[in-house]
Design goal:
The protein is mainly alpha-helical and 106 residues long. 82% of the residues lie in helices and 0% in strands. α1 packs antiparallel against α3. 24% of the residues are buried.
Length: 106
């Protein structure tokens, strides 16, 4: 096996484990915030939007180039003209994409 292939496989495993761990944490926070209700629902929205991205990455289906494009698109959408819920969702999306892009790049 080529060294580059071996390094890629090790990186993929580390990346997938990272995403799985982050998904568990985000899921717990989202659920806890939902149970509290009220203003905590903003936290629920912020963390819930992250879950599909973490799952996709944990399952080995993360596309770095697509993620970079979505990161830039999401970044452009964020403004103070949004509702609080939409702002929290877009900030969560920006965060998860950024985390995964950075992690895969290391």
């Amino acid at each position: 096996m080529k060294l580059s292939k071996l390094i890629l496989e090790e990186t993929d495993e580390s990346f997938n484990e990272f995403a799985e761990g982050r998904a568990k944490g985000a899921g717990k926070i989202a659920e806890s915030a939902k149970e509290k209700g009220g203003d905590s629902m903003l936290t629920h929205h912020h963390f819930s939007v992250k879950l599909p991205y973490y799952k996709k990455a944990a399952d080995g289906n993360f596309n770095l180039e697509e993620a970079k494009k979505e990161f830039e698109s999401t970044h452009k959408k964020i403004s103070t003209d949004q509702t609080q819920v939409n702002f929290q969702k877009e900030m969560g999306r920006l965060e998860v994409l950024g985390e995964l892009i950075i992690k895969l790049g290391t």
